Amino acid sequence: MMRNFGILLSVTLIACQANAQQPGVAGKTTPPSTTKSQPNPEPLEVKLVRSRVVLVDGKEILQSAVTAKPGEILEEVATYTNKSKSPLKSLEATLPIPPNTELLMSSIRPGNAKASTDGREFLTMPLKRKVRQASGVEVEQSVPLSEYRYLRWYAGDLAAEKSLVFSARFKVSNDETPAVSPAGK
Question: What angle do CA 112, 84, 166 make, to 5 degrees?
């Protein structure tokens, strides 16, 4: 069965302080000056590329990933570029995990990402949750990688006219369960 991933090509930009306010006097902020003759372009550009990873003669090749079959590997690469002349403060880069896939932990670049199952709470991996057993005892269990829905990197400042790249790979699952968006998304 082929899965269509064309409609999933989207970026979730959760948070980035794009130097929208500049420091003013005595720690107060003042809005940046603007000219009415020119539109103020967005200071942050985010490009998301999804590819299918295939082996050809023992070498990895990246191909278009509009569709994918169960068992195939997808790679998501998000490039965050500061288009402004000032640093962007407190960049938080977020990479959505495609539905019906399982995160390949060793593929996360850079490796300091946090993960979320709901897009609101991001924690250090591996994610854990408490589960009450039939006996009433609560035990901590690992959250299956197939339930991870987002990765986030707390990148700090992004220098003027510079880029940062974040990536991860995912295995397309055999699960026929339809994808469900997180609450509030």
Answer: 20
Peptide bond just before 126 cis, omega within 30 deg: yes
State if pTM tops 0.85: no
Give the residue from 65, 73, 121, 92 showing the smallest Cα distance to 11: 92
Domains and CATH numbers, the chain: 3-16+42-172 (2.60.40)
What is the signed CA dihedral for 172, 110, 105, 128, rounded to 10 degrees? Answer: -120
- Cβ burial, residue 37 (10 Å; 0-12/13-18/19+): exposed
Interacting residues of 13 by C-beta distance below 8 A, sequence separation 6+: 44, 46, 94
Over residues 98-145, the pLDDT tens digits come to 999 999 999 999 999 999 999 999 999 999 999 999 999 999 999 999
Residue 51 corresponds to which tokens in the numbers above?
């590819």
Chain segment 43-83, per-residue pLDDT in tens: 999 999 999 999 999 999 999 888 889 999 999 999 999 99
